[in-house]
Amino acid sequence: MGSRRVRGAALPVVTILVCLAVWQAVCMAFDIDVYRLPAPSDIAVQLYKDAAVLGMHAQTTFGLALVGLGLGTVVGIAVAVLLHIVPPLKTALSPLLVLSQNVPLIALGPLLIIWFGFGTTPKLILLVLVCFFPIALSILVGLGQAEPHLREYLGMIGVSRWERLRRLEFPASLTYLFSGLRIAATYVVSSAIVAEWLGAGANRGIGFYLKLKFSGFQQAAVFASIVWIVVMSLLFFYLVVWAERLVIRWRPRSEPEWKEAVP
């Protein structure tokens, strides 16, 4: 089992290293200009030179994404519970929820700035709109997956609608909730970057740094910011995975124990 895990972790690392080596070799062999395509060594040097600045901007972006994900989760749960309790409302609002996800961020961002001014508010609204939909949709599906016999039994003994939601339906939807959270966590950092890029007047955040370096044709710095974005996105994803393991302890193992003993 241990050797299998080592092989599973080593294969992606080896693949990434091979891709970086090929990238480096191509840049050196064809003498590609740094402003066109920087080599991995150029990006590493830029990461080292701008470590303090990138860390400061990343802290701002991480905080914005964290607050946006938290608010999006609260709004998503509230919307899902409301639509579950009031079925006619679900029928009436479902098309609007889908429609809200088809408006491009690059078009919605400037409108939010016009309506709510500069600062943090339009950015948070943008992140909430991105995050709440996968969470609301996932938990709405989960609320309807509670055991029908238990639901009927609770209704027969006179349990209130709220108590049935709290004791049966919501706990049964937790796995669906974390499925939606994983999707939202995957997109929240990139959405925060877009919000910072569009947010005129902002002077902090990876989005601001990326826009500044892109305007100056400093491609090594652009790729360095992309590295930070990828790292933060992975961090958010695995934070959700860790929280799921912490909260949902009753879920059965994905594989029987006897399979783990088989080499």
Describe it for me?
The chain is an all-alpha fold and 263 residues long. It contains 12 helices and no strands. The protein has helices spanning 2-29, 40-49, 51-85, 87-100, 105-116, 121-143, 148-156, 161-172, 174-198, 206-215, 219-247, 257-260. Residues 252-263 have low confidence and may be disordered.
User: Mean of the pLDDT scores?
Assistant: 82
What is the number of beta strands?
0
Distance linking N and C termini: 7 Å
Helix content: over 70%
Q: Name the poorly predicted regions.
A: 252-263
- Which structural class do you get from the secondary structure elements? mainly alpha
Strand portion, in percent?
Answer: under 5%
What sort of overall outline do the alpha carbons produce when their principal axes are compared?
globular
H/E element order: HHHHHHHHHHHH
Characterize the main sheet.
Answer: none
Helical stretch tally: 12
Write the layout of secondary structure elements.
Layout: H1 2-29, H2 40-49, H3 51-85, H4 87-100, H5 105-116, H6 121-143, H7 148-156, H8 161-172, H9 174-198, H10 206-215, H11 219-247, H12 257-260
